[in-house]
């Protein structure tokens, strides 16, 4: 693990100082670590990472990849104590933005990545958004045989029960779109207007907690329509489950790669991120999980049969808009407190 690196940051700096003080003394170089610890959310994402990122990185560098669970509390505690258990992490982009605001992340080396090829809004100083998922409208095809909601306004008017995420992130945005706010005019959020919109459907809405639950309540027919993420209903639909969806008025969200502030193996961590963000790796990832690439150079490498399922394809990307991670970094705690009081 990172905190067991054979040569500490303090030792390296001390050695470098000695090297510059003594004429002709050779520079002290930090030995490459034997392993790189990456904190992830686990599940299918980690399985995909293992195939398209971890294995190629280890083959290229000889450095073994070890994974660990990712929690926001752990990141903060680790950086403040300078006791590093991870070298880098995968986390929701809105959480990465908040961590960057708190000073918990290293600046990225954009000299190793082509910033000009990134989708607008996905390249940040301290983190890079790594994929595009869609929070969108889905429905049970047995309960809704015709007239599926074309947009969030129709979703709000749908008969029967509907499902929404029991979090303010993304739920507030779709509440505003349901009330007539254009997808490109969402921010800064009119929070009071969003709550008034949610008031209209609160009694007939099942507020779910996890992505798995959002798909299951649709498949079981517990709700007629629900907001969910495309990766949760893509495979069930292909497998014959009674569920369908579309990308109209989608809210695009992303995972992100980031390096904890002060992490001793940040050079190797940055090299990993650069590999993971390369066009071939991004394209390979999108063939395993239907999340679109953020590196636009990846899309031409993707099978045209796969592209229609990806949120960032030429067909789907104009239908939605990105969640503003900077807004949530600045306002998330306040809005979450209001939302939690409202939900109770």
Structure in words:
The chain is an alpha/beta fold and 344 residues long. It folds into two domains: 2-131 and 254-313, 3-Layer(aba) Sandwich (D-Maltodextrin-Binding Protein, domain 2); 133-252 and 325-343, 3-Layer(aba) Sandwich (D-Maltodextrin-Binding Protein, domain 2), CATH 3.40.190.10. The protein has twelve helices and twelve strands. The two termini are 42 Å apart. The model is unreliable at 1-28 (pLDDT under 50).
Within CATH, the superfamily of the largest domain carries the name: Periplasmic binding protein-like II
How would you characterize the largest beta sheet?
Answer: 7 strands, mixed
Say how many strands there are.
Answer: 12
Q: Architecture of the largest domain in CATH?
A: 3-Layer(aba) Sandwich
- What is the CATH class of the largest domain? Alpha Beta
Helix content: 25-40%
Radius of gyration: 22 Å
Q: What coarse outline follows from CA principal-axis ratios?
A: globular
- Order of secondary-structure elements: HEHEHEHEEHEHHEHEHEEEHHEH
> Whole-number average pLDDT?
91
Structural class: alpha/beta
Say what the CATH topology of the largest domain is.
D-Maltodextrin-Binding Protein, domain 2
Number of helices: 12
List low-confidence stretches.
1-28
Quote the beta fraction: 15-25%
